[in-house]
Amino acid sequence: MVGSSLLADITREVGYKRADELYRAIGSGKISVELIVEKVHERLRQGDAAEEAASAADELMRAGRVRERAVTTAGRYGISVDGVGTDVMVRIAKCCRPVPGDDICGYVSLGRGITIHRTDCANVAVLRKDPNRFTAVAWSGDPDASFRVELQVDGWDRHRLLEDLSRSLAEAGINIVEALVTTNDPMIRNRFVVEVPDISTLDAAIARLRQIDAVFDARRVTPDAKPDLLLDDDGEAASVN
């Protein structure tokens, strides 16, 4: 938080002009650490439902887009935040779309809660330049929400292949949110955005897809941001005009 606009706002709110004055007041006992921590938590809990930057999946699915819940409590996602618990507002990063079972980290988005990334997300490597804005997070308990991921299924084009793919996902208990099919005879590529409860369900569904006749590859897609992309305050790739 040192040097952040969030801390500067809190410093002014409690009656000081500069951070060093606030530190001296804390050190002398004129103001309590607990008060400052609570004010930080209040701002994180408020969250911000502003839309995130578009991911590769969003660009693919230009028609019939469905808005995702941008922000909700950590508890609803089955996530605990170190030192805060489950009441803080969080959002799931669209750039890497983590699901329960993935290794995750939390990036403090000032005034917008905490953005949850996969630890192997390319954006995280860029954001590590400001390590003080990361906080420890972990999956805990059963989430009261589903998680969107992107799947790619490649195969040889044949009659009723899409029907078989859709049925396989439905039988696995997975809901298809968006789909895009492109053909390059004799091959076909299917992109799906689906909702899953956890990584084990996702892995099982991918295994089922690979067993379908004419399918030669099925995999989870995790779009990687290029290191030179601009990132917004949420740790998402920002569009550049």
Summary keywords:
disordered C terminus, alpha+beta, 27% helix, 241 residues, five-stranded mixed β-sheet, Alpha-Beta Plaits, four-stranded antiparallel β-sheet
Please tell me about this protein's structure.
The chain contains 7 helices and 11 strands. The protein is elongated and about 75 Å long. It has a 5-stranded mixed β-sheet. Strands 9-10-8-11 form a 4-stranded antiparallel β-sheet, covered by helices on one side. It has 241 residues and is an alpha+beta fold. The chain has 3 domains: 5-44, no CATH class; 56-139, no CATH class; 147-221, 2-Layer Sandwich (Alpha-Beta Plaits). 27% of the residues lie in helices and 25% in strands. Residues 47-69, 225-235 and 237-241 have low confidence and may be disordered. It has helices at residues 5-13, 19-27, 33-46, 56-60, 122-127, 161-171, 199-210; strands at residues 72-73, 79-81, 89-92, 104-108, 114-118, 134-135, 137-139, 147-156, 175-184, 187-196, 215-221. Strand 9 and strand 10 (187-196) form a beta hairpin.
Q: Outline of this structure?
A:
This protein is of the alpha+beta class and 241 residues long. Helix content is 27%, strand content 25%.
Strand content: 25-35%
Task: Determine the mean pLDDT.
Answer: 78
Class of secondary structure makeup:
alpha+beta
Please summarize the sheet with the most strands. Answer: 5 strands, mixed
Please tell me what the overall shape is: elongated
The total tally of domains equals: 3
How widely separated are the two ends? 30 Å
Q: Any idea what the radius of gyration is?
A: 21 Å
Order of helices and strands: HHHHEEEEEHEEEHEEHE
Low-confidence stretches: 47-69, 225-235, 237-241
Helix fraction, binned, reads 25-40%
What's the arrangement of strands in the largest beta sheet? 1-3-5-4-6
Would you count the extended β strands for me?
11
Question: How many helix segments?
Answer: 7
